[in-house]
Amino acid sequence: MAALTPEFTLYDLASTQGTSRPPSPRSPSPHTTPQHPTTFIMDSPAIAAFIETTHPAPEAVLTSDLGAQIEEKARKAVGPAFYVSLVPREWRILSPRSREYFHRMREAALGHPLEHLLAREDVAWDAFGDGARAAGALMRTHKEKGPFVLGEKPSFTDFVVAGALQNARVVEVGVWER
């Protein structure tokens, strides 16, 4: 995979304007949508709901019982392995300014260098199997009806799964292949 050249600064968005308007209690940085530069949205479900209201076609199902089950099982099975494998490597796709911020903030939150997470990588991947298979089986529930989790139409869950896999591929293709 070709090396990425960052074109913008991530994670330090608040300082680019000299002001900060927190979009959610969990984030100190504002996030805007291109068509609505004064609309600040954080967290994937809220972003998806906003996109559905501003761009209703094609329709995407935002909630479903099956989707919720898949997301819960996938987070429990894949989340720990992705966390210890990707977080210590994410800095490589960031701009120099963002790299410094990313390291400083993550290491302060963790209380140790990011690279220490890699020591838990094999254990996390060893625990990956059964839960990932269960999530995969649920994802195939409607495979005869179409390529998406719910069959013919994409759902929020399809975007969550595809987004997580794409993130892994971009950050470290070896994690994605695993």
Automatic annotation (TrEMBL):
Name-wise, this protein is: Glutathione S-transferase
Q: Which Pfam families match?
A: GST_C_7
Question: Where is the segment annotated Disordered?
Answer: 1-37
Glutathione S-transferase UstS-like C-terminal domain ranges (all copies): 72-171
* InterPro entries cross-referenced by the UniProt entry: GST_UstS-like_C
Name its species.
Answer: Paraphaeosphaeria minitans
